[in-house]
């Protein structure tokens, strides 16, 4: 068996299962092995559980299987009634009618889950079925809980993975010196442990190994992209254009002292022969866009081109419109290039860019495609918010030998981290908001009282305002009870928002629909948008006065702060209501910080301090920057070491090092993940 073998060859994977696995982006054995548990349940602590406890693992018998119920909001609830010596309890599944087919009446199962008590009935939502058969002993171990979608079960993952691991031996792929130096366990052991941990100590060792591996290859890739670029860098000395004065006059407001200070710093950089390499950080709403436009304008007036990359199409569109409006009397040619730009238009734009017939190109990742060429690119601005899109940025930077680089972010990046991600970078801070900004009144409430939030939404809408509702998921995920855009939409459409125009919005929608929905919201046709965090970046609708965030406990505080920044953009008093599952003091503390502070930098700092202490030991499924097991901020200590080793390897002239380096680079070049096998 080879890690690149198709997943369909495994025993137990029929056409239907194959389709479902593919939906989870599992196509080959490697994908399966890298599908890590999102959490673990420590079974040894659940021993001797009974129905009086909150979390249980129990052997029980199926008494009956009830007929599915359809709720008012269109959900299907399936119920299986279990029985053991303590009594009776019900296992319930939402919208997963097939789950009940896993059970036979009078047969024995081992069930795990969290108990909910309501009016004398004991039930478990989405129980995990661990083993079947009366004689199966539950070994004392830590049970992996996989993220589940599309009808896949935890049992299936456990079986498939143990089948694979019994047939495969994974060879080492880090240099031995590194393994010895940092006392890392082998890759083979790490993978076995991640999927089947015997104790917490081993589990932590395995995680450390995988994180190291991931951050090491990640560092290698950044360094390789940069080394080419730095070698050839010489810079352009731009003049200060006289037209800047006219532009400043065309701006409909007065720039703040903070903005002026940062603009001065940027213009000094532009004048120098050396390339600018500057990060502008400023809280949400501090007015970074205009600073970027001024920086770009000066370069363009020197006869060079500018590229402005935004993280989403919605934002790119907005920046395009703002720039066109502001620069309309200044004889600048501006175009927009996004994934959704038509094929023909794309070709025309690319041709114009190459010939120098466009001065400013604004766009998304489409700008980094290989066939996008510039005639004389003078400045690259990336508005990456907190996404650390290092790879994309490096790729864009490689399109010009000596362009100035300006990166904008709303989340302060810890100094240590910025050093690794950006190298010798200068930082400018816009530390004051424009005058007249109001504080966004923030409240938090437990799920139990969420009706109050929606009643308040109605009253705002009746006053003529508009409302954002944010959920962590698009569609219901089968292993969690987090709110999804679809569920909330269905629920609200049938209750509070029966007579109110509401729309849904999420990242994977076709760009055309997204645009339509945003436009309808902007011009007031729809009153409510229910969305995922796509709403986070830069959307500007001054009439929106309320944001409700569901499962607020699931978001980072910096992210909540960014989200909240979507309201309070006009003259109306604005509010943010965080609906959270306040299970513990850490969550309460985090919500308190949101309520009491409106200083994005303070909030981010506090979040870093609190996080980590309460985190469970599973993996969050990342993916934004291709990192699966590690987090650049949380794992900064490991990142430092891995980065140091990667720097050494990059510079090494030793033959074996060169071989290892080339091999790793070959593997990761065309992959979206940074854990690779030999
Ligand atoms: P961010 O820093 O979050 O990217 P934006 O650049 O989007 O902020 O600016 C937010 C809003 O503030 C925009 O509507 C912009 O026109 C406005 N704005 C920017 N600077 C000023 C200023 N000095 N005075 C008043 N309004 C400003
Ligand atoms: Mg912005």
From TrEMBL:
Gene3D superfamilies noted in UniProt: Nucleic acid-binding proteins (2.40.50.140), P-loop containing nucleotide triphosphate hydrolases (3.40.50.300)
Helicase C-terminal domain ranges (all copies): 453-609
Pfam families (alphabetical): DEAD, Helicase_C, RecG_wedge
Superkingdom of the source species: Bacteria
Keywords: ATP-binding, DNA damage, DNA recombination, DNA repair, DNA-binding, Helicase, Hydrolase, Isomerase, Nucleotide-binding
Domain Helicase ATP-binding residue range list: 269-430
Protein name: ATP-dependent DNA helicase RecG
Organism: Clostridium algifaecis
Lineage: Bacteria, Bacillati, Bacillota, Clostridia, Eubacteriales
